[in-house]
DUF4179 domain-containing protein (Brevibacillus borstelensis AK1), 459 residues
Amino acid sequence: MKEDRVWREFAESAKQELRQKYPFRLSELEAKVMDKVEKRNRQFRWKTAAWMTGAAVSCALVVAVWNPLGLGGLFVKNNAVQSTAKFEWLAPDEGFANALRNGYPILHSVKKEQNGYTVEVKEAMIDHRRVIFTMLISGKIIDDVASENDEEKKADFVFAKLTTAIGKIRKTGGTSYEWKQIDGTHYLIFKSRYMMDDDDMDALLKQPNPVLPIHLVKQSHNGEEVLVEVPLPLPEEVVSAKKSIQPTATNNQPQLGKQDLLHELAMEEIEMTPTLTRVHLQAKTKEGFELQSLINPRLVDDQGREYKPATDGNPIQGYRHMADSFYLDMIPSLYYGDVPQKLSLKFDGATVSTMKTGHFTLERSGQFPLEAPFGNKTGRILQAYYKDQKLHVLLPGEALSEETVLKVDGLNYDNEIFQNGSFIRTYSVPKKDAYQVDTERIDFQEIKMDGLVPIIDGK
């Protein structure tokens, strides 16, 4: 079980680096990584270290973990307080807090008993894009674990088994947890915040009398099992809570400074829900480059008020819809009150990327370690050998598997494991003395500028 925490620390480190590099590439990478996750989830985590590495990297790419206490890790462990205590709701961000101040509802608590657990979902807030809720779990299973007063076992119980989900709705976000005794009853408490997939939520909200299913999920070698489903009925004031405005600035030319990589940034639409404002953008870059993120973006109105990214505890500021379409989620929302007479998007720069390629010949009987061009960097191949009708390529552990693409004789690797501090990739190619290796690696460039995109100019 100690190995689990080592891997989770690795995941947190990788997660921070990848979030900075891929803020607009989340959906693009998610599709790529989830295929791996589905395959690797069939192997139970203690069978092989390879699954743990895959899970760590996958979590780094797909999950943007929210942490209400500012602590690291995929989950937050609060030392259990065994004395009687009152439950305290998690602190919402400014987007949720602003909605509360304007009378947006907190949903009624719902409790359900199933499979030996008593689960209560309370203090839930939801709009078309986000949900925040607290799940209190009690029952004999929880009592048995909590009564041992063994912090190691309690941590392992959560890491190995339980998490929350929202039915089959795709999401990003995360969950913290704590063990607490309230009025003599032991509770495992999950505090969750998720950004939900647009299409999935729109489909749900179009149903008559929509209900959001909150799941307590058990993880196992056979996949995920829903232990308890708690239905949250959504009132009309939630279902109908969405507005939009179109940009009307007469002078809509963006100010992009003296640079030649980002050619155009245009405002398409502003979509408003009670907890956030979603700004849809269209970008054009120099051929061969892609916009990855804006630096310090904020909406500024005619009163000088600023609306900043709803990061949910991570630096992701939006993500790619299609080739050049993006959105930014900003808080507090413009949903309440009158539309400002003037509104603009300001930012201090942009990060763009381009793909660097390289190639070299790999000889099985050559000298190792071999220094080779990995796109825009020099990388190392520790060893190459042929076994079980596959070429095995050994790479150092610091090589990020999703960052560098290596093709052997035009083929991608078909498997990757992490062993003794190194990655081993296998390629289904014939046995021979030499192979052609093609590499691709993303190169990032930061552009400084006083950027501005007019949205509404009051004219």
